[in-house]
Amino acid sequence: MTSQRRHRGSGSSARAPLARHSQSVLGTGEEEKMMQRPMLSDLTSFTPELARAYMKAAKGDELAAAIALANDRNALDGSSAPPDDAEVHHALFLLRRAQGLPAPSFDDLRVALRQRAA
Known about the structure:
Layout: H1 30-34, H2 48-57, H3 62-76, H4 85-98, H5 106-117
């Protein structure tokens, strides 16, 4: 028997908007090559310090930090596939929880991902 999980804090008053920097860190360039990006060492622990390191590497762009974290989690799991929306949402949840922030809305995240892809 499988059960579906629902994230708490789905009320609109508990949600915080996605933090976004004016420039994406997902492009290529000299600045990105020189920047030290954190690397997740295991799938069992995620500390506030590591969350801050991902946010710093993403220059404050919460969505870019979540995508980087989701990519790292996939790599640790042995997958080279890009993360799907659910994996990015879970990574964003981990980032926010480690920073003491409310859980993100999956719908808001999907909208932000679509806007970024456009």
